[in-house]
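Annex B. Sample input.
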Amino acid sequence: MGYCNKNISCGCIEEIRKSKEMLSFWKNNAQGWAPGETTEKFERARLDLLIDLTDCLTMWYDIGEKMTQGQIILAYANLGALVEGWLKLFYCVYYRDYKESPKITSKGNPIEPENLSFEFLIQHSNKALWDDTDYDWGKWVKKIQQHRNAIHAFNSSDIERMAGDYIEDHNKFFGEFIELIGNRLPRL
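Annex B, continued. Sample output.
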């Protein structure tokens, strides 16, 4: 049960429900049909936190253009964590495929999907998850990453521009990004 969804009024209730259903499914139902190594990934994954963070997005949407600079930064930290989490979910679901060409450390060891950096997820997804005909997902995800990094408050960020982008990015996340990932996941 989420902590932030007491009064959902953002107009994306159905998309939130679908998102939470997909996350719950992968958290609770992979065992028995998915390969053992994939099942282990989901047993350790904190998809419950992604569900709670999904609920929290409504809080930022409801505040909208009245967000303070701190709220804008937190809203993008929230959204960025979800975008990164959904990408990691994809590579965990397709763990066997990922293992065929994993990211390798400087010592020659493969990096597990749940430990991939946001930057590598973007680079790898440009070939594995989307291409130039799929909107321009690489640019959008990169923008979300950059806005999320404003959480490092010591450095300067264009928070005014971020404020204008947030509602559009929120809607794109629920209306298109989750669908992009969800349509590529196995349906059972």
